[in-house]
Amino acid sequence: MAEEEGEEYLFKIVVIGDSAVGKSNLLSRFARDEFDHNSKATIGVEFQTQVVEVDGKEIKAQVWDTAGQERFRAVTSAYYRGAVGALIVYDISRKTTFESTKRWLDELNTHCDTTVARMLVGNKCDLEDIRDVSVEEGKSLAEEEGLFFIETSALNSTNVNAAFEIVIREIYNNVS
Ligand code: GDP
Ligand code: MG
User: Fold this and answer.
1) What is the pTM of this model?
2) Ligand 1 atom with minimal separation from the 153 CA
3) Are 95 and 18 in contact (CB under 8 A)?
4) Torsion sign over Cα 116, 89, 19, 154
């Protein structure tokens, strides 16, 4: 790819996973450094754009959030269209959300090709005392499926920027 002054990078990244795992809060923590204690369906907002610098290059990360439609198992193909990165999120305090990640991966794979940079995200790692999915379980699933893996807390900010930045860097490496 040509190295030009002022070259623009715009990466579409989708955030998927069961309802209430913290997808919207991961995004609001990343984009605005905000956390919302009340779980409300995001209304009207399709994506947020955050500028990140990689190797001195300005990259616009356009991160898409489901508007709560994952509850109805009806995330549309438009949501996935053009995505070059994905965060597949579960809640470390709810095993069922971890078990669902395989279904989310299947859905991702039917809509996007395998070059999409994919990160398995165990969110709510602040809830150590009611942990229901071990770090090892997360790691080994990620290894099996060829995903990056990280545990995060949107509540206390642990690893939130890192989760997005690792994916963005991988996308950058794929395209440059
Ligand atoms: P979404 O349905 O996946 O978008 O999940 P939300 O972002 O709406 O979060 C669902 C609920 O989990 C809300 O009550 C949030 O306050 C809470 N939550 C989100 N992230 C965290 C986290 O990292 N730690 C804890 N303890 N709670 C979280
Ligand atoms: Mg949400």
Assistant:
1) 0.93
2) 23
3) no
4) negative
